[in-house]
Design goal:
Order of helices and strands: HHHHHHHHHHHHHHHHHHH
Structural class: mainly alpha
Strand content: under 5%
Shape: globular
Distance between the termini: 8 Å
Length: 425
């Protein structure tokens, strides 16, 4: 079977598995493991359809009074849900099916593009195939949350950045800006990666890239964010660039109650940590005040903060079964990240050698994979310094699957009698 047929088979399989999970999760929105936020996004979408804007009908997480405008959640994802509900009625199953059929195949296709761009067609197909069977991706493709679309935006941005470094053009710069802008609207933490990406482009494409190749993505991002900044000012009467969640997260994650080991609090414990004198503030004021308090925790005891960040590493990269998790969660964790972690680590090592059989036949200089290393380091660092967890690692998993595909092909080529992997025709 040639390369195109392999790719089509992978994409079809990916769509079928995601569709199956969407049908299994059904037309209800329930608090399932790792997907509790989908209740909030569903409720916001219904509120938008009913003309109440971004608000909740009752008191809501984190400290939002009923019928009060909120900016805590992604603005973009409820719009997607509201759009599908407007077309098909308020049926979460419809949103799951549409999302599953978009996200699954496009994720595999983008990984294929990246693998082909950086390495070769065989590695590209291996990475796409691994993503098709990756349990976390199958599960979250049908969850009504930002994860799957955000991963798409990250992969699209990395692909556009690599193309821009190779052959700068205004079209590629525009696509980079769109991918980054949409990703930031889904999860604003991507903003923190932006300076590193621009510096990488300046270094990798030095002598070829021009100022407008960097200015255009920034302009697109600004245009996508600006309407929400204006909306926030009208609502809160103060500057809020996008979402009001950084202060809450940093305050809760680094509160002295954790000591040097971050623990998941139960029930209303997070809300109870908010000082009573701050609870009369609006959401934007409260977010800013909590950020100041969180930074104060760090300055008051930097040694504790360093140990706390280091002790977040096991939870962020957890791959073993846990008694706190259900059977399906444990199987998914071990059978996805746990199974592929050795391949991911070996694949991360391979480009540093540059003389392996696979890399010698790469279609492009594998040195460009430094962009992927940079994303893994920066994005993991952001969450280890703030709020860590398996769900927040998934965009990194998507990038690491490329290296797992590279390792898989390299191991195959080193098997006895396997002097070379036949490239797909």
């Amino acid at each position: 079977m040639n390369e195109k047929r392999w790719l089509v088979a992978i994409l079809v399989f990916t769509a079928i598995t995601r569709l199956g999970v969407a049908l299994y999760l059904g037309d209800q929105v329930e608090p399932l493991p790792g997907t509790y936020d989908q209740i909030s996004y569903h409720t916001l979408a219904v509120s938008l359809l009913n003309g109440r804007g971004y608000s909740f009908p009752s008191a809501w997480w984190p400290a939002t009074p009923p019928s009060t405008p909120t900016s805590f959640w992604s603005f973009l994802y409820p719009l997607y849900l509201a759009g599908t509900y407007a077309l098909f009625g308020v049926h979460p199953l419809a949103a799951r099916v549409v999302q599953a059929l978009i996200v699954g195949p496009l994720t595999a296709w983008l990984l294929y593009r990246l693998g082909r761009r950086l390495f070769n067609p065989t590695v590209a197909l291996a990475a796409a195939g691994l993503s098709a069977v990756y349990a976390y991706f199958i599960y979250y493709a049908a969850a009504l949350m930002t994860e799957s679309f955000f991963i798409l935006c990250v992969l699209a941005a990395l692909d556009s950045a690599l193309e821009l470094a190779e052959k700068p053009s205004w079209k590629t710069a525009l696509s980079l800006g769109i991918a980054l802008g949409l990703g930031i609207l889904l999860r604003q933490t991507l903003l923190l990666f932006l300076p590193f990406l621009l510096l990488w482009l300046l270094w990798q494409a030095r002598g070829r890239i021009r100022w407008f190749h960097l200015a255009l993505p920034l302009l697109v991002i600004a245009l996508l964010i600006a309407p929400w900044t204006v909306r926030n000012y009208l609502v809160f009467h103060r500057f809020v660039l996008l979402n009001t969640n950084a202060g809450f997260a940093f305050f809760w994650a680094n509160h002295p109650i954790h000591g040097t080991y971050s623990t998941l609090l139960k029930g209303n414990a997070y809300q109870e940590l908010i000082p009573p004198e701050l609870r009369s503030l609006n959401e934007a004021e409260l977010d800013a005040a909590l950020l100041r308090l969180g930074l104060g925790f760090v300055w008051a005891d930097p040694g504790r903060y360093v140990l706390l960040c280091l002790n977040r590493i096991p939870e962020h990269f957890k791959f073993w079964p846990s008694p706190e998790s259900g059977l399906i969660s444990n199987i998914s964790r071990v059978g996805s990240f746990g199974l592929l972690l050795p391949l991911m680590l070996y694949g991360l090592y391979l480009p540093l050698r540059r003389t392996t059989p696979t890399l010698q036949r790469s279609t492009l200089n594998a040195q460009r994979s430094t962009l992927l290393y940079l994303f893994v380091l920066v994005y993991c660092g952001i969450h280890l310094l703030t709020w860590a967890g398996i769900r927040y690692r998934l965009p990194v998993d998507a990038v690491l699957i490329l290296f797992a595909g590279l390792a898989l092909v390299e191991i195959w080529e080193r098997l006895p009698g396997k002097t070379k992997v036949a490239r797909p025709a």
